[in-house]
Each structure stands twice: as C-alpha cells, then as structure tokens.
Amino acid sequence: NSVSFYQIAKVMTTPVVAVIQFYGFGIHLHNHLKLALTPICLGVILALFNDIQVNKMGTIYAICGVLSTSMYQIWVKSKQKDLDVNAFQLLLYQAPLASLMVLVFIPILDQMHTSGNVIGLRDIAWTFQLVKWIFLSAILAFCVNLSIFLVIGKSSPISYNVLGHLKLCVILTGGYFLFGDNMNFTKLLGIAIAFVGILMYSYFKFTIKDGWESYQKKIEVSTEYEQVAVTETEER
User: Fold this and answer.
1) Distance between CA 234 and CA 236 in Å, rounded?
2) Quick check: is 100 in a domain?
3) Can you give the pTM of this predicted structure?
4) Cβ count near 107 (within 10 Å)
5) Residue 147: partners with Cβ closer than 8 Å, 6 or more residues away
6) d(Cα 89, Cα 53) in Å, to the nearest integer?
7) Which of 98, 100, 158, 209 has CA 20 to 30 A from 176's CA?
8) For the chain, how far is it from start to end, CA to CA, in angstroms?
9) CA-CA-CA-CA torsion for 57, 61, 62, 64, nearest 10 degrees?
10) At what angle do helices 3-11 and 31-48 cross, to 10 degrees?
11) Within a domain: residue 152?
C-alpha cells in the first residue's frame, strides 16, 4: 500500500481505541470529545485521500495493525493503573520481552518480505558505519517508546492519537513551506479541518474528564476489597 493509506489506517486507531475502551474497560468518552474527534479524523483522511493505493494483503495487515496498536495503547494506560507503576517502570518490564519477541521473528519475516532490489539481513555487509546507525536508531526508538508511555500515562490513549494527528498535519504543512511539496485545495482543507478538531479537543480535554478517572476508582475499590479479604483471612 501507499504511505497515505498507512497514515489513514493509523487514523482508524482513534475510533477503535474509543470502542475498545467502552466495551472492554467500561470507559465512556464524553460526547464533546467525540464531537471533536470527528473533524480530526475526517480532516486527516481528506488531506491524504488523493494519494491512496490499496491492495488486499496490505489491507489485511492494516486491519491487524490497527487492532493490535489500539490494544497496545490501552494496555500502556491500564497497566500503569493496574500495577501502580510509572512509565519508566512499565517500559523497563516491557522492552526486554518485546525485544525477545522481535528477535525471534526478524529472521523469518525479513526474508519473507525481501524481494527485488531490497537486501535482506543475511546479505548485508556489516560495517562499523552500519552498526553505528543501527545503534543510533535503537536509541531513538527507545526515546519514542518512552514518549508513548509518558504521554499515554499522563493523559490517555485518545489524547496520544490526537497528538499524532497534530504531528501529521505539521509534517504536511512543513513539507509544503520548507520543501515545496504539493499542496492542493483538498489537502489544505483537510489540514484546516483537522486543526479545528484538535483545538476543540484540547479545549474540551481541559474541562471534561475522559473516563479514566472512573477506571482508577474501580482499581482502588478492587484493591481495598482484596486487602480486606486478606485481612479477614489472616484473622481467621
């Protein structure tokens, strides 16, 4: 698929997160926040719609990616609440496990999707320069992951998605002004609509609770109940 389709698939993460939060965790998103998310998603889709290229296998991958990303973002938030840990502690536990999982699948998937002029890992000439850039990439990836845990931990998965949409709008706008990228009326209109939605969401977010407070109360009540049950058992 094209990069534009990938970006549009990422947009679908926002409503999917809202649905999973509601049905899986009982977290209700305020109607005003839903209202603000509508122009954000529609605006980004409109800004990217002209460059879409889609195929069957890419669509399947996109659906799997949206579902897994949505659950991942929700777990980043819920596990910090459930385990009463901060972003650094959760990432310290998650990162080694994720690295082992990726290490197992890299040799398989790399060769499976290597074709044409693309060189696979087995055929790469490992030089000091290459290792240096890979190491730098790993450091940047750690910073990105840490920022994800911090932003979601301090706000919510929905807010993190809105931040991602803002980043995309800034990239599209910056590409036009700094590098002379193509900017037609449809793309400009989409960016403008998305910016309006982002401003609406930011305003409502500071005045309305997003539902995770109620989830926190459930965790606290459950913890208190477990402590009481343990105390009663010990007394017996």
Assistant:
1) 5
2) no
3) 0.82
4) 12
5) none
6) 40
7) 158
8) 64
9) 140
10) 170
11) no
pLDDT digits (tens, 9 = 90+) for 82-141: 888 999 999 999 999 988 998 888 877 776 655 566 667 777 888 999 999 999 999 999
d(CA 40, CA 47): 11
218-225, Cβ contacts within 8 angstroms, sequence gap of 24 or more: 218/26, 219/81, 219/82
Percent of the chain with pLDDT over 70: 83
* Structural domain containing residue 174: 3-83+157-235
Question: Residue 226 has which token pair?
Answer: 């477990």
How does residue 203 score in pLDDT terms, banded at 50, 70 and 90? Answer: very high
Q: Which two tokens stand for residue 113?
A: 């999707």
Secondary structure (3-state) at 216? helix
Q: What is the Cα 131 distance to its own chain's centre?
A: 28
Assess if residue 145 is contained within a domain.
Answer: no
- Asked if the structure places residue 94 within a domain, the reply is no
